[in-house]
């Protein structure tokens, strides 16, 4: 089925190139955005099929070539041009992004400012031991027992000093973590981890400031538009 549809789209692309020309004159194939999108999808599909035949021998371990198959997810984008109502919705979304671009710049600026502050406050403090009974790095060594089911014997695991997925060890990670906080999804866990690094009742206060500035001042006007 994939070969059939790819062949049809490739044939359509060839006919348009013959009829409209490639690039040099007005109305040519490459001067239309939707034609370019169609061409990219078709070329990516053809390249993926071309390398698919080498998987059994020389290309068996070439992960980069195998990843080209992912480009086939672009095929549904071809329907945007063929359905006028869907194309109108897509154009509306693109035009709306232009209107909120300035708000996104302000939001990014606040994210960067709070990210730099968070690195100064929490840098290197979001590590934890896989053994929950150990709180400090000098204690996190050796082995411990893990009890998952009373009917099964415990298993032995090594203690490891790990870094949490959302942390503030650099500005990029800090901005990503703050983005999770401002979206309101999953931020209680990050807040709890921050409380473990500070004094009692001091951990939540930076998050309330981020919520006030990040959501009330930037995201709310963005959503209202």
UniProtKB/TrEMBL annotation:
GO biological process, one term: calcium ion import across plasma membrane
GO molecular-function terms, A-Z: high voltage-gated calcium channel activity
Spans traversing the lipid bilayer: 33-52, 100-122
Bilayer topology term: Multi-pass membrane protein
Domain of life of the native organism: Eukaryota
Keyword terms, alphabetized: Calcium, Calcium channel, Calcium transport, Glycoprotein, Ion channel, Ion transport, Membrane, Transmembrane, Transmembrane helix, Transport, Voltage-gated channel
Main location: membrane
Gene3D superfamilies assigned: 1.10.287.70, Voltage-gated potassium channels. Chain C (1.20.120.350)
Domain called Ion transport: residue spans: 1-198
Name of a matching Pfam family: Ion_trans
Keyword match Transmembrane helix: yes
One term under GO cellular component: synapse
Subcellular location field: Membrane
PANTHER family linked: VOLTAGE-DEPENDENT CALCIUM CHANNEL TYPE A SUBUNIT ALPHA-1
Protein name: Voltage-dependent calcium channel type A subunit alpha-1
Lineage summary: Eukaryota, Metazoa, Ecdysozoa, Nematoda, Chromadorea
